[in-house]
Design goal:
The complex is a heterodimer of chains A (774) and B (191).
Chain A lengths: L9 H8 L7 H16 L7 H6 L6 H14 L1 H7 L4 E4 L3 E4 L5 E2 L4 E5 L2 E10 L3 E9 L3 H4 L13 E3 L5 E3 L2 E6 L3 E9 L7 E6 L14 E6 L1 E2 L7 E5 L17 E4 L2 E10 L4 E9 L5 E7 L2 E3 L8 E3 L9 E2 L2 E8 L8 E12 L3 E6 L9 E10 L2 E12 L5 E8 L4 E7 L14 E2 L4 E8 L6 E21 L6 H6 L7 E2 H10 L11 E6 L7 E6 L5 E6 L4 E2 L5 E6 L2 E6 L5 E3 L6 E6 L5 E6 L4 E6 L6 E5 L4 E6 L5 E8 L2 E8 L5 E6 L10 E2 L5 E7 L5 E8 L6 E7 L4 E4 L9 E8 L8 E6 L5 E3 L6 E6 L1
Parallel strand pairs in A: 32-51
Antiparallel strand pairs in A: 1-2, 1-14, 3-5, 3-13, 4-5, 5-6, 6-10, 7-8, 7-11, 9-10, 11-12, 14-16, 15-16, 16-17, 17-22, 18-23, 19-23, 20-22, 21-22, 23-31, 24-31, 25-26, 26-27, 27-30, 28-31, 29-30, 33-34, 33-56, 34-35, 36-37, 37-38, 38-39, 40-41, 41-42, 42-43, 44-45, 45-46, 46-47, 48-49, 49-50, ...
Chain B lengths: L1 H12 L4 H11 L4 H20 L2 H18 L9 H19 L26 H11 L3 H12 L4 H8 L3 H23 L1
Helix pairs in contact in B: 2-3, 3-4, 3-5, 4-5, 5-8, 6-9, 8-9
Classes of the chains: A mainly beta (774), B mainly alpha (191).
């Protein structure tokens, strides 16, 4: 029997199979900065912030003095005193307006081997240098050329004339397959320096050698003038401003026991507002914020103001365990005020200095239980250690489990046995449970004996608070009011809730045909089935995904691990499609004689006859394609691809491989493949909503004209939109609605009439509709 | 000469590892923790990414781990197993995360992107990697965790032993048996 023997190189294979990508360089640098900053604020250490700033220009001494004051008074009141020193540049962030502001007068572009790098914006003030650059023309095939786990990208830097290099202190980026845009933050330029090189050793997402490397762009900044948009920043005082007319406005900070939720800055944007504030723990105990979710903005009528949480400014927001920044951006300006900005809940980790002892005796056995009934009180939280029991886990290790009882807000307890070898957190355990019960466990290789001194390392509590800040928007003009008109759409988040409440819809009995479904049952892939709409017919065909039904409904194309299989809908028999190795996204030609498919390995679309003959490459490109349909005339294949700054609905002509863009969207994620109507005149596709966060399903003519919304769900809905299929007669479009409030994990199909906007939910059907045969 | 040599040998026996020195320095001067962070940042992130499968969650949990470690450093008693202590914090953070997150299922997902620049959709894996990955996915949780600590977190056997509360010999034995079994199963798949 082989027991301990395996080929030495097998470890390498296991390592490769488990490999995951490295963290983003920007994230690593950002977290390091946060750690250094927090470490500097720990007791007994000098403040590097002060040390660093001493080297900067004289006007900064004002900020310096104010920051020292911050340690005593609190950030909110300090910011109130800094009125007028800040501006906001869209795309860049906050900038100091005194002490000289430098900017790139116009974008600088470099092209190498079909890849274009554009430095779009650079703004440098006395605090930092912010660079925004965009890259396009990348090859996704090149990005994947060294497989998962390959090291990609690099840390950009600024190189000064004297050779000194400024490294990134923060950054973020957004990609779309064939390119990305990044906003990078560097330290402030030395005084009198306005020219430097922006260096990108390796483009993001590219492994070594996959694309041109060592990009270096010379940038010359000039005193900022009209080329940048500088928006005023309203500094907010946490105390009501008694000099303001109508001074019944609430304070701009909400205090609740140990927490202060404060609004500190407001910027009026072209189409909304940017709110930034702070969340601070002022309790006596040491604590750390674990999470703070779901900041909402509601108008005076109780309506949600469309908004999304964004990352607060990395320089002007606190980044300690006990004080964090928050930011939210609205997409509306016209809703009646005052607005209420509220934080519904947050999680806090506390560190009680609590220990307890338990005598396990000299010969405890698995199954033994000790009744403890010891109460603890920390930070006004009362919880009890009810009992301890000794069990054996699946590894035959001994496990001491501690049963706690406490309020529902207590969601975690971590324990620590300092006398147990190994030292450190090896004996620690997290708690789990609910309804006031919590179990925390520690594992031992041998049964622990005797008196154990256990310390409670930390507890995590959830605070559901009523932190609200009131803010009065400025008066709106008629033009802005027009922006706030509700969208005209067949199905919205609200109408979906109404449909759920009403139950089954009318009209489904008028429809006929069979629906091709994918139903999740807990297996690796969903179960494939055909379900009669006007009959009791139902037949299953095994598991699969991204399947496609032949035009006559007789055959289902199913991608497998080694290619595409054709499943006879009547008999259920599987037949392999020759020439389809590595293929997915099968598409049937209208005559049912050919199948087109996509092959990831060479980023191509092929077509082939059902017997495997006439295998032909139709398209190969860098833009990562998701084939979605043949046009009814059989001349083109429609696909979703990464376009410039968003997904695009494209078509490739089979005869000569010429491509054309039908519709350019603003969605940078491939959410759903477009669907062509049976007559080839219309296309249904996904895109972001205009003027508010959320996604919509649109319909338009194939030239992009007559575009309108079929369905729109905002980002705070409990349901999400899923693309479906056209009815055979072209009158209906099926949406697959995934509602997270349902206990089941399958979507609900909803039929939408493209001409009348009638909506018929099929609550009795469980699964995603991916085909409809007459 | 002999006495000098003896003195030298005695000093070598007391020689601390670079990590020992870093930990002691960080306990005295919290800002020195950044050096420890530099050593462990990618390993902790990869470990958490392997556990969660979500880069954003891995980033959040990595941040929580290091900030908690920084806060807890004054209480930490270093006996040469800093990695065990750090990864125990990471494990606890991951456990808390899974307890808090509701499960969500999204069907028409054409990409696994969650916002970062990672478009390795349909990445170029060969069949054998997929088979081995499948076999690993079917292992018991603790067996997967053992492989994860060894091959993703890159921990030494002694550190793993310290973390999971076993002696080093037992950990090695379990690992060797597990690898042998996986290799045998993989050969059966190929056959």
């Amino acid at each position: 029997m082989r027991e301990l023997i395996y080929a030495p190189e097998f470890e390498g294979k296991v390592r490769a199979a488990m490999a995951v990508p490295d963290a983003r360089g920007e994230f690593v640098a950002e977290l390091r900065s946060q750690i250094v900053k927090q470490a500097g604020e720990m007791p007994g250490q000098s403040t590097p912030l002060l040390r660093g700033r001493m080297a900067w220009a004289a006007p900064l001494l004002i900020v310096l003095a104010l920051l020292i004051t911050t340690l005593v008074i609190g950030p909110q009141k300090v910011w109130a005193a800094v009125r007028g020193l800040f501006g906001y540049v869209p795309g860049i962030g906050y900038v100091q307006t005194d002490g000289g502001l430098l900017a790139l007068p116009e974008p600088v572009q470099v092209e190498r081997e079909g890849i274009t790098l554009i430095v779009e914006q650079v703004v440098a003030d006395s605090e930092r240098t912010v660079v925004v650059y965009k890259v396009s023309g990348l090859s996704v095939q090149a990005a994947n050329s060294q497989g998962e786990g390959a090291v990609t990208g690099s840390m950009e830097l600024l190189r000064l004339g004297n050779g000194e290099e400024l490294l990134i202190t923060n950054g973020e980026a957004r990609g779309w397959g064939s390119g990305y845009r990044a906003r990078l933050v560097f330290p402030a330029l030395p005084e009198s320096i306005s020219e430097f090189s922006f260096v990108v050793p390796r483009l993001q997402s590219m492994p070594p050698g996959a694309a041109p490397e060592d990009w270096e762009v010379t940038l010359t900044l000039e005193p900022a003038a009209g080329e940048i948009t500088l928006l005023p920043v309203e500094e907010i005082s946490p105390e009501p401003d008694e000099t303001t007319a109508g001074a019944d406005e609430a304070a701009a900070a909400a205090e609740d026991q140990d927490i202060i939720f404060a609004l500190t800055r407001v910027v009026e944007l072209e189409d909304g507002f940017l709110f930034e504030g702070t969340l601070e723990w002022v309790g006596e105990e040491k604590a750390a914020f674990v999470y703070a979710n779901g900041i909402q903005v509601v108008d005076a009528l109780g309506e949600r103001v469309p908004s999304e949480e964004v990352t607060p400014d990395e320089l002007y927001a606190p980044h300690t365990a006990t004080a964090i920044g928050w930011a939210i951006r609205t997409y509306s300006k016209a809703q009646p005020g005052p607005w209420e900005i509220s934080l519904p809940r947050l999680g806090i980790e506390l560190y009680p200095d609590i220990s307890f002892s338990v005598d396990l005796g000299q010969a405890p056995q698995v199954g033994d239980q000790w009744q403890v009934d010891q109460q603890f009180i920390f930070s006004e939280i009362e919880f009890d250690l009810l009992s301890i029991f000794l069990e054996e886990d699946s590894r035959q290790n001994s496990r001491l489990s501690f049963n706690f009882s406490g309020p529902d807000t207590l969601i975690g307890v971590s324990l620590f046995d300092p006398n147990y070898q190994p030292q450190g957190g090896g004996g620690g355990g997290g708690g789990s449970g609910g309804s006031g019960g919590l179990t925390s466990s520690m594992d031992y290789d041998v049964i622990p004996v005797g008196v154990r001194e256990i310390s409670i390392y930390s507890i995590v509590v959830e605070r559901a608070g009523d932190w609200q800040i009131s803010w009065q928007p400025p008066e709106t003009s008629e033009a802005v009011v027009e922006q706030a008109q509700p969208l005209e759409v067949c199905l919205t988040s609200q109408s979906w809730e109404d449909l759920k409440a009403a139950g089954a819809g009318e009209g489904a009995d008028q429809l006929s045909g069979d629906l091709l479904l994918l139903t999740h049952t807990g297996q690796r892939l969903p179960v494939i089935s055909l379900l009669g709409m006007d009959s009791d017919f139902r037949q299953e065909y095994g598991i699969g995904a991204w399947i496609s039904l032949s035009p006559d409904g007789s055959t289902i194309a199913v991608p497998g691990d080694d290619g595409i299989y054709l499943v006879d809908a009547a008999s259920g028999a599987y037949t392999y499609l020759p020439g389809s190795y590595g293929a997915d996204y099968p598409l049937w030609s209208l005559d049912g004689e050919q199948i087109a498919f996509h092959v990831w390995n060479d980023a191509s679309i092929y077509r082939v006859n059902l017997d495997g003959s006439n295998l032909t490459r139709v398209y190969q490109g860098n833009d990562v394609v998701y084939p979605s349909a043949w046009t009814p005339d059989g001349e083109k294949i429609v696909y979703l691809a990464f376009g410039d700054e968003g997904m695009a609905v494209k078509a490739v002509r089979i005869a000569d491989g010429q491509t054309e863009v039908w519709i350019q969207t603003h969605d940078n994620k491939p959410i759903a493949r477009p669907r062509i109507s049976p007559d080839g005149e219309w296309v249904v596709f996904a895109d972001v909503l205009e003027g508010q966060p959320g996604k919509g399903i649109y319909i338009a003519r194939i030239d992009g004209s007559e575009r309108r919304l079929l369905a729109a769900f905002n980002d705070y809905s409990q349901a999400s939109l899923g693309m479906g299929v056209w009815s055979p007669d072209g009158e209906w479009f099926v949406l697959n609605i995934h509602d997270f409030s349902f206990s089941q994990s399958n979507p609900v199909p909803v039929l939408v009439s493209v001409s009348t906007c009638q909506v018929i939910p099929l609550f009795d059907v469980s699964g995603e509709v991916v085909g409809w045969r007459p | 000469m002999d006495e000098i040599m003896k003195t030298t040998l005695k000093q070598d026996a007391q020689q601390k590892s670079p990590e020992d020195i870093l930990v002691e320095e960080a306990k005295r001067t919290p800002q020195a923790f950044a050096a420890l962070y530099d050593l462990y940042a990618q390993r902790v992130y990869r470990y958490l990414l392997s556990k969660t499968g979500n880069p954003q969650d891995a980033e959040d949990l990595s941040a929580q781990t290091f900030l908690a470690a920084l806060q807890g450093l004054p209480k930490y008693r270093h006996r040469g197993k800093f990695a065990a202590w750090l990864f125990s914090i990471a494990r606890n953070k991951a456990a808390d995360h899974f307890r808090r997150q509701p499960s969500q299922v999204s069907l028409e997902d054409l990409s696994s992107e969650s916002g970062g620049i990672d478009w390795s959709v349909g990445a170029n894996k060969n069949d054998r990697d997929l088979d081995l990955a499948d076999l690993i996915a079917e292992l018991l949780d603790d067996e997967q965790e053992l492989l994860r600590l060894r091959f993703v977190a890159e921990m030494r056997f002694g550190e793993i032993a310290a973390l999971v509360g076993k002696n080093e010999g037992a950990v090695k034995k379990k690992m060797y048996r597990l690898l042998a079994r996986l290799e045998s199963q993989l050969e059966d798949c190929d056959a």
